[in-house]
Every structure is written in C-alpha cells, then in structure tokens.
Amino acid sequence: MNNLNSLLIEGNLVKDPELSYTPKGTAMCKFSVACNRFFKQDQETQKEVSFFDVTTWARLAEVCGEYLKKGRGVRVVGRLKQDRWTDPDGKPHSRILVIAEHVEFKPQFKKEDSADGKTEEEKPEEEKAEETAEEEKQEDLAEASTF
Fold first, then answer.
1. What angle do CA 41, 45, 49 make, to 5 degrees?
2. 15 with 34: CB under 8 angstroms?
3. DSSP alpha helices (H): ranges in the chain?
4. What are the pLDDT digits (tens) for 7-62?
5. Distances from the Cα of 82 to the Cαs of 23, 94, 97, in angstroms?
6. N or C: fewer beta carbons within 10 Å in the chain?
C-alpha cells in the first residue's frame, strides 16, 4: 500500500515554463513557483518566500507550456519526488521536486484602455488547465469517432 504523499501549492511562476519532449515523444513541462508566507514577529509583519520546482507530464505539460508565463498565478496539486545522485567527486546530492497531477490557472486580467480613455476594462483568461485539456480531448474523441 502507498503512503500518503500529497500537497497543494499556490503561488506565481518565477520564469516562463520550459516545455520539452522525451525521446519517446512524451511532453514534459518544468516551471518554478514562488509561494509567499506572511507572519507576525515582534509586532512586525515578516515575509518568507519559498521556491518550488514543478514538473508536469503529457497533455497537462503541453497546456502549461502554452498558457503559463512568468508571474502567472497557479494552484498545483501533486506529490513530492526525491532525486538522489552522486557527483564525480563522490559527494551525494539530493533534491525534492513537485510532480503536478493538477494545475489550476488563477484568473489573469488584461487591462485595455477604452477608446475615450475614461476607464480600463478587465477580462479574465483561461482559469484551469484541465478545462482546456478536457475540451481538446473531447474534440479529439469527436473527430476520431467520425472516421
């Protein structure tokens, strides 16, 4: 039986994601998320920032590579994975990665000046990677069933 290994992270992308493909053609997307934590210490508000490396696979990776950009807010549900290796000098190394199973895109608002310049209009973009991936999957299934 598997032990519990689940996490939820919410933050903003530190830089644009990196989309690549394995030799067998499976999509893989890597990006880093910065999470802010605020707390009080001696009557002063303190800020602590943590950075997490996230990896997505398959269709989710393609959607993340297409829609995510630096600064975009995300909510990641996934699991932790530990990589271990030994360098050429014989020194052991280790790092913890987040393997995403679900990525939600926070609403992104684009500000556009109106023709008369009086107000700015805000329009939300895609909210969830899964919605887009599911719609495209349904379209692919519909196309495949028509043949």
1. 100
2. no
3. 58-67, 129-145
4. 999 999 999 999 999 999 999 999 999 999 999 999 999 999 999 999 999 999 99
5. 23, 7, 6
6. N
User: pLDDT at residue 72 above 60?
Assistant: yes
Query: What tokens appear for 96 in the block?
Result: 């913890």
For residues 116 and 110, give the distance between their C-alpha atoms in angstroms, rounded to a whole number. Answer: 18
How many angstroms separate the CA atoms of 121 and 100, rounded? Answer: 33
Which residues face 77 on adjacent strands? 8, 102
64 contacts 72 by C-beta, under 8 angstroms: no
What domains are defined for the chain?
7-112 (2.40.50.140)
Per-residue tokens: 137: 């999957």
Nearest 5°: CA angle at 131, between 70 and 53? Answer: 35
Beta bridge partners of 84: 94
Count the Cβ atoms, other than its own, within 10 Å of residue 118. 7
Do residues 47 and 36 make contact, with C-beta atoms less than 8 angstroms apart?
yes
Q: What is the pLDDT of residue 135?
A: 56
Residues 96 and 65: beta-carbon distance below 8 Å: no
CB 141 within 8 A of CB 147: no
